[in-house]
Amino acid sequence: MSRLRGSTSVIVVLLIAYMLVYFHRTMTGVMKPEIDYYSRYYGVDANLMLAVMSSAYFYAYVVGQFFMGPIVDYYGVKKAGSLMVAILGVATLMVSLPNTIALVVGRALIGLSASIVFLSYMRSSALEFTLGKQGKLTSYALFAGNVSTILATYPLRLMLNSVGLPLTLIALALSTFAISASIYVASRDVGRRGSGMSVVEQAMFLGRIARNPHSWGVGLAAAASYGIGLAYQSSWGQIHLTEVFSLSKEDVSTYLMVLAMVFALTSLPTGYLSDRLKRRKPFLLTANVIAVIAWFLMYVSSIEGDKLLLTASLILVGLSQGVHVVAPTMAKELYDPKISGTAVAFFNIVLFTSIALLQSICPLLNPLTALAVNIAIALIGIAITTLLVKETYRIQH
């Protein structure tokens, strides 16, 4: 009983930590007024600054995956996870400073330190729970993340209007320090440091994983469903909704909240059904098919100026993201649970590099052109899932 209680405790604490990560990941999606203010003050193009601020997180997040996966597998969640979450708190305080360099560097450091949280969660899940619970556990993380995303839309907009960006970030930083301490107390995972294997040898597993077409396939398929939706949600979606539909900043946050709510509501049933049916690949393929339909409808709604069709398309984008939740589980199930952090790290490298590129490019494109790019990516995702991705549920170690 005490072991089960300990396993549950660390999962709960890491879920809360992941909510913070998701909040940081998507909060720039409603911060255009604040970014516009800073850009005018410092004489910087507003859309360029939005692209840099939002993508800085993801580029740093990708860089972190190259060493955070091996580090968390080697040193364990107790030390590595708690330390990096504490650094996340420091980085959050940096972003609260009224300086463009601090904003961008702080966002990058947030991305770097946050990169360990999902790896810690997936490693703890693989070590503490059976194969038949992995789909549900992954869905719990993405559900929790999207509850946080909902908070990072209209509720965040209200808070920014009320107390401003600096006080909001200081409150986030204080919460982050408390979570860091909780991870250290709750986790029993001390890694593989005493196994006779060095951290460099642990990192060599990343090369083995990179040579497997399945690992590339899962990451790219996730980018073609979840990734294009997240890039829209956290970056250029507010430009699209403002310029094409002339929505206010409050209305923009409400429309983006619809997307996040659908994602949250569909992620849990997807994880449960995947474990129940003992299948993963059909869900990932379905996510890509829904993505094609969703972005096509959004393209049509933008031409027609139809807000009802826009709402339907956002619901489908959220559904595509919710159904994709099997992807991180598929990324690790092909490998030994003891290197699950490294396996998920490679998945994140592929996924978040794609997101960072989209966040760098799409804010600078005409919104209709950006929507056409998303349709093309979703179509490619169907082909990649069909040709490269394996069914992983029945693979035993």
From TrEMBL:
Subcellular location per the Swiss-Prot or TrEMBL entry: Lysosome membrane
Name of the protein in its database record: Lysosomal dipeptide transporter MFSD1
Residue ranges annotated for the Major facilitator superfamily (MFS) profile domain, each copy included: 10-393
Recorded topology in the membrane: Multi-pass membrane protein
Signal peptide bounds: none
Taxonomy of the source species: Archaea, Thermoproteota, Thermoprotei, Desulfurococcales, Desulfurococcaceae
PANTHER family reported in the protein's UniProt record: MAJOR FACILITATOR SUPERFAMILY DOMAIN-CONTAINING PROTEIN 1
Entries under PROSITE patterns matching the protein: MFS
